[in-house]
Structure formats: C-alpha cells, structure tokens
Amino acid sequence: MAGISSPRRFRRSKRHRVRTSGRDHPDPAPDTRRRVLTPVELLEQRSAEDPAALAFDDGLSSLSYGDLRRLVSAVARTILEANPPAGPVVLAIDSPSLEAAAVIACAVAGRACLPLDPSHPPARNRAIIHSARASILLTDHDQAADPGLPVVSLSELPPPLAEPLRSRLAGDAPAYLLPTSGSTGQPKLIALSQVALLSRATALGRQTSLTPSDRTIAGVPSTRFYPGLSMFLMALGAGVSLWTADPRREGLRGFIARLATSRVTIMRAAPSLWRAIADLNGLREALCHLRMVRFAGEPPLWSDIARLRPVVPDGCQFMNTMGRPSRRI
Fold this sequence. Notes:
Blueprint: E1 18-19, H1 39-49, E2 54-57, E3 62-64, H2 65-82, E4 89-92, H3 96-108, E5 113-115, H4 122-132, E6 136-139, E7 151-153, E8 174-179, E9 189-193, H5 194-207, E10 215-218, H6 226-238, E11 241-244, H7 247-262, E12 266-269, H8 271-277, H9 283-286, E13 292-295, H10 302-308, E14 317-320
C-alpha cells in the first residue's frame, strides 16, 4: 500500500493540527536522571494513589487499579504455587482483563510470559510453545487440544499474596515473548524486557501529553498483540484508563457504541478500521471528546485525514508513527 496518496504538502490549520514522529522528529528521550520503574512497581504505585480509579475496561468487565492489583497478585500466587520448571509461562486466555493482569503477574512470579491466541490453530501454538521452551500454560477455558505442557486453570483463583508486589525478574531480563505472524514461513519470537517496553510506552505517553483525565482506547482486542500491550503499559505509566474494543466481536456499530460509552479522548487504530467506520451514523457524536487520532498498523493516506475531519472535534490532532520518516505525519 502506498503510504501517501498525493505528494502535495499538507496544510496545517489551527482547527486540525498534525503531529510528527520519526528520525526527523524523534520520540522524547527517556529521563536518564532516574530509574525506570517496572510495570509491577507502577501498579503498586497507582493502586496506592487511587485504588478506585478505572484501569482497564474490555467491554465484558472493568477493573479499578485496586482490582487489577488484587487480580495480578492472585494470578502470581497461582504461578508460584504451581512451581513450574524453568521457562516462560504461556497465556492462552480469552478474557482481555485477565490476560492483562496475567502479563504483570508473570513478572511478579519471576517468569517471562508468552501470550498466545487460543483461536489460532493448535499446531501453530504448539510449535511456538516448543520453540520458546515454555514451562506451563495458564488458561481460563478448556483446552480443545493437548498443548504439550502442564495446564493450570485460572477459573478459580487463590487469595492474593500477603506481601507487596515486586518483580522477581530483572528490569532488563526478557519478560515478554511476542510471536510474529509467521509470514516468512515460521513464527519467530521477539523478546522484550520490562524496562525496554515500558520506556517506549512512557515516551509515547509523553508524546501524546497524557493526563489522568484521558481515556484511551485501542482498536485491538487484547494485550497479546504488541499494540495492545504497549497501550496498556502507556496507560499504566500515566495512571489513565485503557479501554479495549474488538470489532470482530462487537461489529462496527457495536464498536461505535463502545466509543460513545468510553467517552474516549485518544484512540489508536489502523487506518483500515477508520475507513470502515468513517461514514457510519453516530460516529461524530461518539467521538465528541476525542483530542487525538493515532494511526498505527499501516501508513495512512492523506485522504484518510480528510475523511475524518468532519467527524472529529475542532482541534483534534492526528499522529502517525508508521512508515519511513518522510511519510510520517
């Protein structure tokens, strides 16, 4: 797909500003004067500051920061009591909120996590599990096929740990293993540390000028995808609420209804999703609180911005971080 539909210069206006990102407009540099906190430490901090504040809403359930901390602690206790051998923990979890908690819980238990999509072919998931040398699989549903390693159900959780949460993984140790699509013939695993991923997420939060009053929404269903994981940690870093939405489950009109319910101020979605909803009734009303559109997943066209202008509020900014720097807007 071409990144830009026309070579003409985009005219900036006071009504609709455009932000840039890329080598010519680098992300904010991390603050080297202080240590970067891990997601576990951030969760402890957020839950102590305002335990009732909304942290995560997936359309099926919602969690305050206090709820999220208790859920993380209970899942971490489940892993510790299972005492699996060395190796990452596989997450085959349908519930987005439970999966988000399990991602942090693995670090509390001193394990890297490997989130997998339970709907993917069992043979593909088994190959990824074997490649990662995983130790145990956590799930919230019955496994249709043998994954090839011990399975622990999260349907009934123990009480939370008695002690404060702490990461048993070093900040620079591999913490998240994310499989690629396998377009080259076989999925590969990308290893990310807590500090590396959180530093990037925090920089994005500063770039979007996040405040506690913001409500962010990701047009991806869960944290098993890098965009969802990055948005989750960005929200955690800023102490804001993250809403996730799954257009496949809700349908496009249900997706718009969810936008209206969340009163979203920052939305991250691929241009193809924006194109699918741009002309549907009710979108302008659903986006009446929006202050920033973040294009991701694929480069947008100039026509995408022109098409969205009539349905976003005055002053709404557009941000793109895809493609070559010369194509970034």
